């Protein structure tokens, strides 16, 4: 298989004048991007960076971040992106754990980087406003350099993403160039991307969804339109201005875009293909997006940083909740909960743990320096995802949540996702999250946290659940009305915060306002 450097060169040679990156006033063709990538690799040489070294980045989705990603592929450097909101101790961990030789940062992450003792012991590259002792990004890229040739094979490490840590330190997920390219090819095929498509580059480049969009566009001489951080008005403006053809977002961003009061004032008719991943999409949101965009293709993509694609459903609205069937590079099973064997299969409609075969071209090979995590997650060549789900009689997979999120109430297993999808269909519900809260009698009770649209009350929602066909034991026993549902920077629902009481009710917010 081609390494990623040769893959990019193929795109440069096919269509050198095709538009590769847009970032505000910056517009780079593939040929222009290649010139800057060559300069960056020469800059890496001056810094003494070698193939196999790790380069930490703490950047938003700027064109410089995209160029750095590609320069690392040519040079054989392992790009190791961290969340640009990372604090100093989180940067310390990422640098120390990866044994990084250098770090690149910008204004928004400068304070945390300069407070990081590990960063100060490395080569520091500043995109904006370097101080003495730091290297400026401009000094690396503003030079004439010979066209760079790829220095490593497809077996070289490409990137190391960190999984989001909840109760423990994040786990490094190193991935080889061949796995990254295979994942990008599958993404193109499964989303039916055509030559010269244009995508909104808003999913962060420290997240697998952002990286996949970046690589997929390169394969088809497509355009990656940078949106440094999510902003609804800017997103809508870019979709209209750049004639974006496909969107690949988490459900939360779709929700926020179409429910913004400014949505109807922008022309989004260029968008023909929708894709989502990172979290389930409620039935209500699926219906709204279908009615608004009338997409040619609406893909539910279920995967992870470890194994990019598990399953694909190319007609998500046709069977709400279904994650479809195994992707073109994958085999999937559902095994009985608590089973350590990939051969202990769950029955049809029986909820179990979803596992994926690690022989797939997109798969990782194990966590970085975490034999304990490998022992827990990798068994007999299969990756135990920690996700729960089941196959229906048609052979379609339904993802019901995380093993740790399962609510056991009165001895019954209850999936929060099913209840969330039900409640999302009520017109008075803007957003919903369901968790299990401790209860002396039941062990846990089902609690629904609701962000309201209007003045809907508990009794009305309870009646809605009763008439929807939701089993009686699954009905929420408590409704809590909140101003916001806690989410991660990439829009993933943070149930643990709700369980821990880290939320503000509508009543608490009103009390604060009155006191002020």
TrEMBL record:
Name the Gene Ontology biological process terms.
Answer: fatty acid metabolic process
- Supply the Gene3D superfamilies for this chain: 3.30.300.30, N-terminal domain of ligase-like
Among SUPFAM superfamilies, the record links this protein to: Acetyl-CoA synthetase-like
Recorded GO molecular functions are:
medium-chain fatty acid-CoA ligase activity
List where this protein forms a coiled coil.
none
UniProt keyword terms in alphabetical order: Ligase
Q: Which family does it belong to?
A: Belongs to the ATP-dependent AMP-binding enzyme family.
- How is this protein named in the record? 4-chlorobenzoate--CoA ligase
Task: Give the organism the record lists.
Answer: Pseudorhodoplanes sinuspersici
